[in-house]
Design brief:
alpha/beta; UDP-N-acetylmuramoyl-L-alanine:D-glutamate ligase; nine-stranded mixed beta sheet; 35% helix; 25% strand; globular
């Protein structure tokens, strides 16, 4: 088998997105804005990262789970057409593909409601293990904790770890969070997810951002990338600390832009660019991603490809 730049692992989902008038909270009504019936998108962090890496010219394999339904079959075809090695994608007979509902408020923060279907049973298949043996990077996104543990156990010393963080305690119990923080060479998270990481280091949730970041920096040798919506991103690495401004673009559905940013940062890292250079490239790629989204009418992607 030829060398791969990355094996990307995690959940796939058919994703529906709304803007909301106020962030949802118990006992309080929040209005859904935009289209009454938003079209589904091919979603999930792992496929999004894999497709972006392939678009950027990398050899990439995916370890994930899909149902054997119209959505799942269309998603497989989409991944294959995008240049992603799908041998490690399990297709479950008689089950529906996972669903995700994304709710975005006016500040750009997101609430994710995820139905995993049968994806919680996902483990590392033999085909995925074979590909991991030939990969320069193991890319972890939201996926079953058991699979993530198997991937970390199976990787060789030559395989670096990049973590695209999602604040899901069922996917990432505290012990697993600590392990990845210690093992990773790249950790990318948004400002809302910082407390999720700090919790694993026994830093109070209400501690100042600087306190949480300092604790995280002390606990890892990884390059840390914290995205903050319109404010851009902050990059911390052993030799420095810098902020790269964003180019804000208004779209109703920004689903996947964080994955595009992460993939472009990793791509630049693979190609030997410095963390500030990688952040600039990732910011530009994320801007291009949103410009394409803004220039596209309400998508009929999933409906068209499953009809």
């Amino acid at each position: 088998m030829t060398e791969l730049d990355a094996v990307v692992a995690g959940d796939a989902a058919i994703t529906f997105a709304w803007q909301v008038s106020v962030p949802p909270s118990p006992g309080r009504t929040s209005k859904l804005l935009g289209a009454v019936e938003p079209e589904g998108r091919f979603g999930g962090c792992a496929p999004g990262v894999a497709l972006a890496l392939a678009e950027l010219g990398h050899r990439v394999a995916l370890v994930s789970w899909l149902g054997d339904d119209g959505h799942g079959r269309a998603y497989l075809a989409h991944l294959r057409a995008g240049g992603v090695d799908i041998a490690g994608v399990e297709v479950a007979t008689g089950q529906s593909s996972a669903r995700a509902l994304m709710l975005y408020d006016g500040n750009g923060s997101a609430t994710c409601l995820h139905h995993p279907s049968g994806s919680g049973s996902l483990r590392l298949p033999a085909s995925g293990r074979d590909r991991l043996d030939h990969a320069r990077w193991l890319v972890l996104t939201a996926g079953p904790a058991g699979m993530t543990e198997e991937l970390l156990d199976a990787r060789g010393q030559q395989t670096s770890v990049a973590w695209n963080v999602k604040g899901d305690p069922s996917h990432y119990p505290i012990g697993l969070r600590r392990r990845i923080i210690q093992d990773a060479q790249l950790v990318c998270f948004n400002r809302d997810e910082l407390a999720f990481l700090a919790e694993a280091l026994e830093v109070p949730e209400d501690a100042a951002v600087t306190t949480q970041l300092n604790a995280l920096h002390r606990a890892t040798g990884a390059v840390l990338v914290m995205t903050d919506g319109r404010a851009g991103c902050r990059v911390i690495w052993p030799e420095g600390d810098t902020v790269i401004p964003a180019n804000p673009i208004d779209v109703e559905d920004p689903t996947g832009v964080g994955d595009a940013f992460f993939a472009a940062f990793l791509s630049a890292t693979i190609r030997g660019q410095s963390p500030p250079q990688a952040a600039e490239r990732a910011t530009a790629f994320a801007s291009t991603f949103l410009q394409r989204r803004a220039g596209t009418a309400v998508t009929t992607q999933v409906r068209r490809e499953t009809s």
